[in-house]
Design a protein that fits this description.
Layout lengths: L12 H8 L4 E2 L1 E7 L2 E7 L2 E5 L4 E7 L5 H7 L1 E7 L4 H8 L11 E3 L5 E3 L2 E15 L2 E13 L7 E3 L2 E3 L4
Antiparallel strand pairs: 1-11, 2-3, 2-6, 4-5, 5-10, 6-9, 7-8, 9-10, 11-12
Length: 166
């Protein structure tokens, strides 16, 4: 692309959302147990941090009603969704939804829910939280992980869901 065809914007929230929407991401559901109750939220800001020690991170919106429950648990799983799991993602993105009413899951080493709709998971304990504007960066040490031998990831791009052909 030629720079003459590039639109340049000031970094306000709408422009930031538009520009960063051009970066395709995977979709993860962050899950935990609040006492005996499973809780979870959709997240597209999940990534690896370190192989040694094994660390990952996700970002949680400070105004999330689910985040304080995951924060208090300090143990959580990042469930990487399969391309067939768009409806699961939409469910976990809704406020006030009964997210686990019809969702099959088992538990990981920490007790956090591992969704059957995931193609991979990492089960973690929180080791650090960093203030980051309207979000919190949560760093977790990986205690257990796993993956399905088949399946493709669900992608998020420019406000919509997509598929990846390998």
């Amino acid at each position: 692309m030629s720079p003459t065809h590039r639109q340049v914007l000031a970094p306000d929230p709408a422009a930031l959302r538009t520009v960063l929407g051009h970066f395709a991401t995977g979709v993860a559901i962050i899950t935990a147990l609040d006492g005996d109750e499973p809780v979870g939220m959709a997240c597209n800001s999940f990534t690896s941090v370190s192989l040694d020690p094994p660390l990952v991170l996700f970002c949680a919106a400070k105004d999330s009603t689910t985040w304080p429950r995951i924060q208090a648990a300090r143990k959580w799983a990042a469930n990487i969704l399969s391309e067939e799991s768009e409806e699961v993602c939409r469910l976990f993105a809704q406020k006030g939804a009964d997210r686990f009413a019809h969702i099959a899951y088992s538990t990981g080493r920490t007790g956090a829910p591992v969704l059957e709709a995931s193609i991979a998971f990492v089960d973690c304990e929180t080791i650090a939280e960093h203030d980051a504007g309207d979000h919190v960066i949560v760093v977790g040490r990986v205690l257990e992980l796993g993956y399905a031998s088949d399946g493709k990831p669900l992608l998020f791009y420019r406000g919509g869901y997509g598929r990846f052909d390998v």
